[in-house]
Amino acid sequence: MRKSWILISLLNFFIATLMGLILRAAFVWEIDWLDYRNMLHGHSHVALLGWLYLGFFLLIHAQLLPNEKASKPIYSWLFWLTQISVAGMMIAFPLQGYAGFSIFFSSLHIVLSYLFAFRVWKDHKKGNVQISLLLKTALFLLVLSTFGVWGVAVIMGSGGGGGVLYQVAIQFYLHFQFNGWLLFALLTVVVKDFSLKVPWKRFQVIYYLLLLGQILTFGLVLFWAYQWDWSYYVNAMGVVLQLFGLGAILVFRRSFGLIKPFDFTAAAKPFLMLALIVGLTRILFQALLVLPEFAEMAVMLRLFIIGFIHLNMLGLFSAYLMFSFFNNFTQGSKRNSLRPTVWIFYLGFIGSEMILFTQGLFYWQEWGRLNFFHEGLFLLSCFLPIGIFIYIQQFSKYFNRKKINNDSKA
User: Are 325 and 3 in contact (CB under 8 A)?
Assistant: First the structure.
């Protein structure tokens, strides 16, 4: 992986958390210059497209492409043009919301993602059938998710902006981003990182259970939008399939083999543990949605929706990216130099999640609002950009040290 690419994606992450901090501050102080909705669009686009998308772009480019294919100029062009589109959205959305420049840069990002998916589909290593299938699934779902964005454009053009169908189109995009492209990209790099070797028939069982489960849980969005009974049962079926998929992993785990040992960097291991714990928590939360009262709560209370989105973005995908980035450049390191980052990041993430879900529970039970809810949420959110800033410093220092050591050996 190229240091400049990783640092730019991490800088996007840092900026996204600062934008989120401004959004939290808006509930504590009067910020006259801030258009909350426009800043929210900027925050979400930079976090999703400038950090998570580019993060997995880098892992796929570094680990799943042959060296001669990865060195093609097209990938450099794709990275830098994608970053230009992210920078454009970073500026345009807070200033104007959905308008000419922001729509142009977000549309450019989608077109570039199509080209990325096409090139990776053709160029990736095809020696491991399981990794290839997971990667192709992730790329397919990446493209599929964007149909929701084009649907939003059509709906807005026909004067239906803000209606139920408009919201369904947005949720279609988000669902197949989080439960499609990002999830299967994560599974792909996990299988690659840990060099997992699973018997083919057992792999197929796990794969189809997870894939069908992710597709069918879109029924929860339809249940929220239209209150169709059948969509609730479709979602419940998807949740059950996901649980069966997890059960299959647990049942078949003894047959999983390692092609080679995976050497953890001690400093980065806590991020891996966080991703594992959050991944299991995510499954538990979704399992509760089989119960009608929990399903209704999950789609009606905004704090639960925000909390679940951040649970995925920060605790699952971001944590694994931070683990993988650091581990790839400090293998064998036993130092705990990331300890300040880990604890600060943990405090900001876990603390803000607890406040969000606790307040959501209070609203659900009609117990009122927590004292100093917004102040506490803002204070805890301050730790996220601080932790990420320290992480960037430590990552850069270790990368330079490794480069110096490699040069001296040469």
Answer: no
Dist. CA 243–CA 245, nearest whole Å: 5
User: Is the CB of residue 181 less than 8 Å from the CB of residue 147?
Assistant: no
Token pair recorded at residue 74:
């097209």
Residue 241 CA to residue 223 CA, distance in Å, equals: 18
The rounded distance, in Å, linking the Cα atoms of 63 and 199 is 22
Spatial contact of 39 and 17, defined as CB atoms under 8 Å apart: no
Confidence (pLDDT) at 402: 58
Q: In 199-217, which positions are buried (b, 16+ CB within 10 angstroms) versus exposed (e)?
A: eeebbebbbebbbbbbbbb
Question: For residues 287 and 6, what is the distance between their CA atoms, to the nearest angstrom?
Answer: 35
Contact 275, 323 (CB under 8 A): yes
- Intervals of the chain under pLDDT 50: 259-261, 332-334, 404-410
Tell me the one-letter amino acid at 399: F
C-alpha span between 229 and 236 (Å, rounded): 11
Report the Cα 359 to chain-centroid distance in Å. 24
Tell me what pLDDT residue 405 has.
47
- What is the rounded distance in angstroms from the CA atom of residue 239 to the CA atom of residue 77? 40
Radius of gyration of the chain (CA): 21
Contact 394, 338 (CB under 8 A): yes
The secondary structure element, H or E, covering residue 7 is helix 3-25
pTM (whole model) above 0.85: yes
Ramachandran region, residue 216 (left: φ > 0; alpha: ψ -120 to 50; beta: rest):
alpha
Complete DSSP assignment for 127-188: S-HHHHHHHHHHHHHHHHHHHHHHHHHHHHHTT-TTSHHHHHHHHHHHHHIIIIIHHHHHHH
Contacts (Cβ under 8 Å, ≥6 apart) of 368: 362
Which DSSP state fits 255? G
CB 299 within 8 A of CB 362: no
DSSP 196: E
Q: Is 169 exposed, middle or buried (0-12, 13-18, 19+ CB in 10 A)?
A: buried
DSSP 8-state code for residue 266: T
